[in-house]
From TrEMBL:
This is Cbb3-type cytochrome c oxidase subunit II. The chain crosses the membrane at residues 12-32. One of its GO terms (molecular function) is heme binding. Residues 48-196, 225-310 form the Cytochrome c domain. InterPro entries: Cyt_c-like_dom, Cyt_c-like_dom_sf, Cyt_C_IC, Cyt_c_oxidase_monohaem-su/FixO, Cytochrome_c-type_DH.
């Protein structure tokens, strides 16, 4: 009978065999299977700037607080249109060298929001730069630390072509001083903007596992439900720039409380801005187009919420107007 207390040779042999078996089952076989995965059609490799940004993302330990994985449960539906797939990480998981493994980006703790689709949710360079310089400037309740070392202070007379500056009103600079984004900050923003969840053409909508069973016959169109839906959609799609109180960020993103466009009796301009985006005012950041991200019902909920919050008192918008404007925009050459 085998006695491992005295038979050291067999003890070492068994331990080594267990180690080899575990290595094959846990590491080698999965790594071999990963070679069979291909990128999603239309997915592009990271550019040189985006790959440098990935390195900065890892070196600054952003993975400690942010995930990049959408699970198939209802609470994750706000972070993407579908659960994440292995092919989503085809380019970011390529080995950096024969002796260097690719970084782990999935994350294990969601202290901050998931970043799987942040490139679609927030495509504004100005917002990302302000958020890196001081997160509280754009998200009042944020607990994210400042990354001010990614910026340098300089005089307006020393600004060179290609320098990206932050709005002076937000950085509290004195005299003629301004904050300029360093190359590391620009690379990091380029990487964050590249994080976009690709959708499959002609795919049916993904059903996320609901947190609670849906009750038959519930009045989902009640006023309370509509207000709650509008508030949640606004927080997930609009509050990062326009703020939860609708006051915006001075010198970066316009306020919605008291806005003539929001309170206009004719809501077509507001709806067009949401559908098509807006970048006609140099003093403010770019407003991304949300036509591909939101349904007519969701846009109606957001518009109604904005027109009835923070002292605004405009009438509700018929869904038919949104449908008509969406159709007219889709027919533009």
């Amino acid at each position: 009978m085998l006695n491992l207390h005295k038979d050291h040779k067999n003890l070492v042999l068994i331990a080594f065999s267990v180690f080899v078996a575990l290595s094959i089952g846990v590491a080698i076989i999965p790594a071999y299977q990963m070679q069979e995965y291909e990128p999603i059609p239309g997915q592009k490799d990271l550019t040189n700037s985006e790959r440098k940004g990935l390195g900065i993302y890892v070196s600054e330990n952003c993975v400690a607080c942010h995930t990049q994985q959408v699970r198939n449960i209802e609470m994750d539906a706000v972070w993407g249109d579908r659960p994440s797939l292995p092919s989503d990480y085809f380019y970011s998981k390529q080995r950096m060298g024969i002796w260097r493994q690719s970084p782990s980006l999935l994350g294990s703790e969601r202290t901050g929001p998931d970043l799987t689709d942040i490139g679609n949710r927030q495509p504004s360079d100005q917002w990302h730069l302000l958020h890196l310089y001081n997160p509280r400037l754009v998200v009042e309740a944020s607990i994210m630390p400042r990354y001010s070392w990614l910026f340098r202070k300089t005089d307006t007379t020393a600004i060179q072509d290609g320098d990206i500056t932050l709005p002076r009103g937000n950085t509290q600079m004195e005299g003629s001083e301004v904050m300029v984004a360093k190359e590391d900050a620009l690379h990091l923003v380029a990487y964050l903007k590249s994080l976009k969840q690709f959708s499959f053409e002609d795919a049916s909508p993904t059903e996320f596992i609901p947190a609670l069973p849906k009750k038959e016959g519930s009045n989902a169109t009640s006023t309370k439900s509509e207000q709650s839906m509008g508030a949640n959609l606004y927080q997930n799609n609009c509050a990062a720039c326009h703020q939860g109180n609708g006051r915006g960020v001075k010198g970066a993103f316009p306020p919605l409380n008291g806005s003539l466009i929001v309170n206009d009796e004719n809501p077509e301009m507001l709806i067009k801005i949401i559908l098509m985006g807006y970048d006609a005012r140099q003093e403010y950041g770019m407003m991304p187009a949300l036509a591909d991200n939101l349904t007519d019902e969701e846009i109606k909920a957001i518009v109604d919420y904005e027109r009835s919050s923070w002292g605004n008192s405009a009438p509700k918008v018929p869904k038919e107007i949104i449908t008509r404007l969406r159709d007219s925009i889709s027919n533009l050459p």
